[in-house]
Write a structure and sequence with these properties.
By secondary structure, this protein is mostly helical. The protein has helices spanning 17-32, 34-56, 65-78, 81-112, 114-127, 136-143, 147-171, 175-183, 188-225, 235-244, 248-276; strands at residues 228-229, 232-233.
Length: 285
């Protein structure tokens, strides 16, 4: 009698469909995750690259993905690719931070004064369409061959798009937010810190993202022209030398390094900042 199963209506046996449902839900969450979608896109692009290279069958014109990956590994270990990336990033961070500080000061005056606001919009309309790399000949003439010239073109590439985005963000702060700050008696720096900056933060982050992309492109282009900063070649110079020596796989290795750094900054810095602020506050979906 003890071996006979007893049915208990109050504690029914678990349905075998529950583990399957949980697995499906877990799989659905993975496929909807941002990292999975981006990884899928990268895998598809790598496969398309490999197939195109095999069809082309000319490694000088288009090396395969596997050949470029091998060149990337070799250049990272033995040919100073990582040192070149570090040299470029050092200059990039200096110029980017300096440009953000300069633009913030200009925007602060523009928000408080109508003439400065009109002047900022006019100068930005003049210089924003001008490629920053076009100022490189003047930078070389004024500052010579070196890091100062790179910083000059980097700052010009970042200041105007970020300043315009910040100005639009501050001008677009809803009146209800302003009224809340006034009702709480906030004035001066406290009003800016607790009301204006949080409300304008989506525009500020967007401007920082655009400025970073402009700075990255400008730096690589400038290094392709004269390449050396502080007696150390950057990524652009690495790509330029590889192209001159017809090492196309190393050219792609240098380009892949630029792309990977851009993806890393986007995923860690900007997405992390958005998740910790505006997405957490419900200002972005």
């Amino acid at each position: 009698m003890s071996d006979i199963p007893v049915f208990d209506a109050t504690h029914p046996a678990p349905s075998p469909a529950i583990p399957t449902t949980r697995r499906r839900d877990g799989l659905r969450r993975i496929t909807r995750a941002l990292w999975f979608r981006r990884l899928t896109v990268l895998v598809i692009l790598a496969l398309a690259w490999e197939l195109a290279a095999r069809w082309q069958d000319n490694p000088i014109l288009l090396p395969s993905f596997l050949e470029a990956f091998a060149a990337f590994r070799e250049a990272s270990l033995n040919e100073g690719l990582l040192l070149a990336a570090a040299a470029s990033l050092a200059v990039l961070v200096k110029g980017y931070v300096a440009a953000i500080v300069i633009a913030t000061v200009i925007v602060a005056f523009a928000v408080a004064n109508g003439f400065v606001r009109d002047a900022l919009q006019t100068v930005a309309a003049m210089l924003s369409p001008l490629p920053a790399i076009a100022l490189l000949p003047l930078a070389l003439l004024w500052f010579g061959l070196g890091e100062v010239s790179l910083l000059f073109v980097l700052i010009n590439a970042v200041v105007w798009p970020f300043a315009l985005a910040a100005l639009q963000g501050f001008e677009g702060v809803p009146e209800t937010h302003r009224l809340v700050g006034r009702n709480y008696g906030l004035k001066g720096p406290a009003y800016v810190r607790q009301i204006l900056i949080p409300s304008a933060l989506p525009a500020l982050i967007s401007g920082m993202r655009v400025g970073w992309a402009f700075a990255w492109r400008t730096l690589i282009a400038a290094e392709l022209v004269f390449g050396v900063s502080s007696s150390s070649g950057g990524l652009g110079w690495f790509i330029f030398r590889a192209r001159n020596e017809l090492y196309t796989d190393r050219v792609f290795a240098g380009l892949a390094t630029v792309i990977l750094i851009g993806l890393l900054v986007e995923a860690v810095a900007f997405r992390g900042l958005e998740s910790a602020t505006v997405r957490r506050w419900g200002m972005l979906r």
